Structures are given as structure tokens and as C-alpha cells.
Amino acid sequence: MQSKLKISLISLFIICVSNFHAQNSGYLGKKTFISADTRLFVPLLYNWTHVDESQKYKADGNSLNPARNLLSYGFNVTLGRAVDRKLAFLIQASVLNFKVSNESFYTPNNGSVIRSSFFHCRSLGIMPIIEITGTDGLSPIGLSHQIGLGFYQNKMVDKEYVVLANEYPDVVTYSKDNIDFFDFNNSVKSYSFMYKLNLRIPISRSLLYNFGIRYNLNFTALAFGLSDDKKGFLYSASETSEMIRYANRNNIISLETGLTLTF
Amino acid sequence: MFRITFISILLLSHIAGSKAQQDFNNFKPLQSVGNIPSDFFVRTSSKIEEDMKNKKENLNVREPKIFLEGIHYGIDEILQSGLVIYGDEISEYVTKVAHKLLEKDSKLRKQLRFYTIKSNQTNAFSTDQGIVFVTTGLISQITSEAQLAFVLAHEIAHYVEKHVVETFEYRTRNRGINSQIQQLSVYSQEKEFEADVEGVKMYYAAGYSDEILTSTFDVLMYSYLPIDEIPLPRDYFNSDLSFVPEFCFPDKEFPIKVDEDYDDSRSSHPNIRKRKLKAIETAENYKDWGKIKSHFGEQTFFYIRNLARFERVRSDIIEFQFADALYTIYILEQEFPNSLYLTRMKAQCWYGLSTMKHANKINQTVMATKDLEGEGAVMHAFVKNLKELELASLATRIVEDSRSKFPDDLELKALSERTNRALFNSDRFEIDNFYTYNFQVGYEKFMASDSLKEISKSEGDTLVEEKKLSKYDKIKLKKRSPESAPSAFDSTDYYYYMLSDLVKNEIFKTLYTNFKIEKDDEKALEEAYNKMTRSEKLKFNKEKDRKANLVDLSSFILVDPAVISYRKGKVDHVESEKMEERVVEGFEYVSEELGLKITTVGRGNLEDLGTEGFNQKSFFTSMLIQSSNARGVDIFPVDYSMINSLTKQFGTNKLVFSVVEHAYRPRFSPYALYFIFFPPGVLGYLPVPFIKGNETEINLIVLDLEKAKVVTGASYYINEPLNQFTIEARLYDIFLNKNSAQ
Fold this sequence. Notes:
Chain A is mainly beta. In chain A, 11% of the residues lie in helices and 50% in strands.
């Protein structure tokens, strides 16, 4: 029956029937799920607020070319369990790769460093998440709201970097060959509070496609110490944590997409 | 010897013929007969594709695809509405008459298919695909085969001339089948004249009489009135046990207002007068007119018309037009006083009126005072003026009389139980207020009472003179002496005398006692509920809802779901049709997963199910339409007996029906304008409307066919895209939670 009379019919009937106060059936009976997501950051503020005065650079051999950090990325693996029609608990492990720069120390006339390439930082983190679905939710599928509070460890990545420093009367080029930039074993702790609007669309009887936008508030613990307490590294621990904090603070918005397996 | 054989053959053929004919005393609603035509099961998208290949160039329209989509989806909606029948006696008769018109055109005879729509609209229309629909409303109103022939000739002319309907855009929401019919039969005035001219030509060639030609337009003009104009006697409801005073009837007549020369400047159809004149003018061009009123016999015509008239009653009941149905029944009763079918339908009408009155929805079943016209209006006005208890008492009386007339009929028995319950439910119903004797006895008793003698004496009358007074004189007498009113005979309470047999009947009394116990229990429960704390109330309601929604769904019948998918604000017909199939597959998958038995009676398997399946689907659909028209009021299924036999056949009384709608409409909040103060924030907000842009609505109801009630259902409004798996997930959830057998 194709008749659209049915539309009025159902709208009349539906007032007679109440909705669920019932057990969660999950997705076709499956309530546990594991997701793998890619996370793409849009360092909005970072780019917006530093358009002209602080061009960023990337290393090209021993020289620096102007560049922008338009995208950082990461991966999440999440294990979840729907405990109710509208509620699920998740635990998420993440690895994030993002770029930091030394712009916070850049002072054209007095500072020693003139320019540097982007430095790479890697975060490893874990985050418990509460997921709440909408009125007619059926966790784990559909549109949901996630709230999480996580702990991250950030480490600088040992790669090729280039820094141009002002060593009067010369400008010296530092690279991995002639200096240790950071203490790569040192980790900087950070905490992240996030809200995510997530959509899981079933694409098979056990697989879901995820898509969402995530808003992060990151708080990075600063290492205290004198800026010249460098212990042989170009950047001290406190300078490193300052750089990471600056980058983290700007990584507010990320888009996530991936797949979820339900079982 | 030859003579005897010939007579025997004649007799046998007569017997065989009469076996095929309906016995109006035991009338059964018309059903489709024979092989199912492909029009009913081929996918609409396939039909459009086929037409795009073959007809595109011949179509005199700007956008052939849009036209074909509009037409095909519109027609298929009618074909699948449960109201269309094929191969039945009316359709066959219409085909015969049409073939008479097309005697010399075998090609056209093969092309055209004739189907009947069970609708009380007086209409017929042809489609671009070669289907000619005729409504039972039209057949029930015409007075001769020749009138039908002219209507058919007119419609065939539209088809032959390739006239394109003016309004083919297929609209989808909240439209009844009647407006769909209306829409598909709207041509320009010019084309209507052209079809009339061509129609007259065909009509003339078939040898029909010119005298009947113009009377066809009278049928169209007065089609909004009932099938006849017979005054309703004021003693129609009176019997040994029942008396309805004359003051209950309207004291005025309802003149017929329509004028054939109405203003048609804004109408697609020319007015009746213009069409009549044009037809007369055209007819004058032909000489030697035939004199035939009927090629197939008057009796056959009247038989066919009666079929349509019996169907008319059923259609009125489905549409909750009880007063119209009752007037038609009254007319048909003149010819068929012992029809079980009419008796059942009458009982259904009175039960329906009683429940509608109780629900304060009586105005939905009777016409507004300003629209009352003709003799049929008396029934409307009468019903409208009755108070709830009056109506419930009269309904109980009539249903009880019907049951007494056919004591073995299960349908009337079920109706009697329900009408009794509706009476108990009426405001101010107290069994003790009803008299154990009828109105006549009551009056006689009153006459013999001392109080009356006193009043009479005070008026200076003798007892003998007093006995001569009519009941109305008694009322006047009562009014003249208000101080003695309590002891005066009061005919306004006439309905308290109507159930004199029932109030003495033990079964009736037990029913009432049980009803009272039930009500007392409800009251006690309500009092207990009122004493509960807030949290207890919440818990109680939750549990109550849960229990109320649990039904045995281990076996159910599935009818076609309705799926509407929108794209760019318009219905994506092709996607909708595909998704409809996927929804059915979803039901089948979930049933298999949860071990449920599903019987699908839908368009998708009509080719396999054949006409039997199509008829079953039509009955279920009619019941759904009737339920929809009830607007929350309890109904009695119009096809009760048929539905009961189908319930037994399928081994379940659960009918599942669903509606799914999907649109992708990202909505931007007006607050987003504040990002003007912080432009980068736009990027953070921008994905949100797109993520939330899917709007999917999934509704499902389970109808108990025996109780004719929605027993459970579910409704989801979700921001998810629509695909087969989304549907399956929701269906799984519904069946897991609502099935008491799980």
C-alpha cells in the first residue's frame, strides 16, 4: 500500500502508543563495540591569530621554507559498552601527532632564535567517556553526545629540525647534526576535557560508520625551571612544555571518522 | 428430445448464472476475481522506465519524466489503496458496456482496462496508461446503462485524444484517496468539451438513445445527494418496544440548493448547463438516433447498481458517514427488508454513532446544518439532535432488534455486546432509571393513574375525554399546570422505555454488573494511585506502560509499509520505492533472527499471492483506513466476518503496519549569526548542522484484528540516515521489547 493516507493514519495511531521504557537491545542485540577512528585537528586559532607576524617554517635540508600547520592528526581506539538505551561507557586510547613551534619565544630583537621549523610532538592518552544518546536513542547507533576527561603524555619526536639562531655576529643554523633540540625522553603531561557530537551509521549488521566533531579543552602541565637550564638541549624542559601547551591549547576542534565493530 | 435438452441447458445456465450472482440478503463485499493484472504488481519505477522508453516523444508535456512520475505514482497509489477491484461483476459489466462502445475498434478494446473503485465519489476517469476507473459512487447514482455508456465514452475520448490532466503533480502528505481521484480527473474546460463531443459520437454509434444523454449531466449535478429522495417516515424507529416522538425529528424541510448554471470561471470543468447545451448541440448533428437504453438488459443494470449501492453503505461506514449510510440502508431496505448485510451495517452505524457521540465527535459523522439538503438531511438532523443517552438507548434498541432478527449471527452478537457497553459508558446511564415496560404501557399506566385524573378534573375534562388526548396534548397539559408537572406524563423521556425487555434480561443485567465492577476497580486503582508518592507514581506508570505495550508478536501479518524519502524538498519516488522493499526485507530479517512468524501481504509478493492475496490486502487496508478515520474512537471492523476468517486462516490476529520518512535537511541555527564577532568559530559550528541534518521518522503500529484496536506501537524520531540496517536495528528493538513471547 503506497497510499499516503497512511501518514495521517500513523500520526493518529501513534498518539495511542507510548514509547519505550524498556531494555536496551543494542545494535541487533550487540551492545559491546570497538571503534577505530582517525582524528583530524583543525588548528583554527593557531592559524587565525598568527597569519602575518609569525610565519611558520618547515625544514628543507638545512634551509627553512614558509609553511602553515593546517592539520594535525591522530588515531583513537575505543572500547564501549551500551548499558542502557541512552547510555554507554567508553574507554578511549589515543595517539595524536601535532606540530608545535617556538613562536612563543620569538622576540625579533632580543631573542637568540630567529626562526625554526615546526617541531613534531606525539601524545599518548587515555580517556574514559560517557556517551548519551537523544530521546529515541538506541546506543550504540545513531547520534550521540560524548563527554570525556582524559590524561595525555606528550613527547617531542626525534626528527630532522632546523633552527636559525642569532649568535652575534653570525646567524647559526642548528640541525640534528650539531645540537640536541630537546630531551626526547622527557614527557609533558596534559589533561583534556572533551565534548563530541558523534553519529554512528550502521553499514552492515555488525559494522558502523562513525563521524563526529569534537571540541577539546586541553590543559598542559608546565615544567618549572629556568629558561637557561637547558642541560645541553636547545630548549629546556619548561620551554618544551610551554610550546606543547601553546599548541594543545589551540587544538580545540577536531573531526573524527572511523569504523565501529559491534559484538 | 432436442427441446428438453435445450430447456435443460437453459435452466442449468440460469442456475449457474444465478449462483455467480450476489444474493443481496447475504451480500458479501465485492472482491477481485481472476488473474491479477500486471498494473497491480509491477513496480512503479519500472512502469515509468518503460513509458520513458516508449512514450516519451508522444507526450505533449514539457517535462515527461516529472509528468510520468506524477501520473504513475498517483495511479499506483489508487491501485494499491485497497479500494480498487478488478474482474468483479461491476468491472466486468463496465467492460462489456465499454466494449459495446468500441465494437469497431478491437485495438482500443485490447488496450483499455476497466477497474472499479469503491468510493462514494461520483466519478470516472481514464489514465494515460489505458486504465479507466469507475467509482461505485457513480454506478450507484445513474439510472440507466446508457448513462454509464456516455460517461465511459467521455473517458475513452480523453484517452484517445491523449488529453493530459492539468494537475499531475503527485503530492504525498495527508491526502485521501478521494482527492487523489479528483486530481487525476481534472482537465481543462476545452478538453472537457472535446471529450463530450467525441463521447457523444461514440455513444451515438453504439445505438444508445439521445433522450438519456443529457440526463447524465443531472447525475453529475446531484451526485452529492443520496441515491434517492424518499421521505424518512417519522415512525421509522417505532416498534413494539421502541417509540421515538415526532418532536425528535426536524420540523422543517431541507431544500436542494444547487443550480446547474453555477459560476465555473475558476473551475477546470465547465458548468453543467454549458456541458448540457454543448451535448445537445453535438447530438443535433446526428440523425436517426438509436432508442436503446440498455444493451444488456434493464435487470442486469439494476442488479449492478444494487451491487454498487450495497458497496456504498460499506464505503460510508469506512468513512464514518453513518447518517448517510443509514439513509441509504433505509432506501435499500424497501427492496431488501430481510437482508442480513443491511441489518449488520445498520447495527454498525448505530454502534458507531453511539461511540462517536460519547467521544463528542458526532459532528464528524453528520453534516453541518448549513449543508443539509434533501430528504437524506432528515437523518442527519435527527441524529445530530439526539442527546448522548437518547442516542445510546436507541442504538442499543436497534442493535438488539437486529440481533433478534438474526439470532445466530456472530457479527450481530459481537455488535450487541459492544453497543451495550457503549450504553453503560454513556453519561447519566443508570439501569434503574429505565422502565420495565414500553412507552405505550407507560402511557396507559399514566392515563390510569389518579394524578392524571386529578389534573384532568381540574381542567374540567372527563376521564373518557382524557383518554382521547394524544401524548402531545398530554405534554401541553403538563405545561399548562407546572405545579403538577412531576406527576404529568413526560414523553421527552421516551428513551427510558426503549430497553424494557433488556432491563429485565438476566444476561444484560449481568453485563451491567460486570461493567460496574470493572469501573469500581478502576476507581479504586485511581484512588490508590492518588495516594502514591511521586516516585511511586513514576514507577507505577512505567510498569503500566510496559505491560500495556507487551503483546504476543510471535506471529503477525505485515502489510506494505509506507516509505517516503525526500530529496531537495521533493519526494524521491524511486528511492522511496526501493526503500519500501528494504523495509520489508528488514522485517523478514528481524523475524528470522527473533524466531517470529511473519506473513507478508504486500505489493512485493502480489505476483505470487495472486488475486487471493490482493483481496486479503484490500480487506486489511480497508480496516486500516477505517481505523484511521476513527480518530481514536473504538471501531467495529466493517468487514468483521471476513477479517475473522482471515485471522483464522493466518493463525494470528496481529497486523503490523509502518510508516518511514526520511529527509536530509541541515538546519542552521539563527544564533550562528553571532559568529560574526568571532569568525573562526564558524568552522567549529559548521559541521554540526550537517551531522544532525538527517531527519528520520519510523513509526510502527500493531493492530489487533479481532478487537480492531491498536495494541502496541513505537515511534522514533532520529537524526540518522535511512538505510536498511537502521531500519533493522529499530525493528529488532521494537520486536524484542514489545513481544511478550520474547
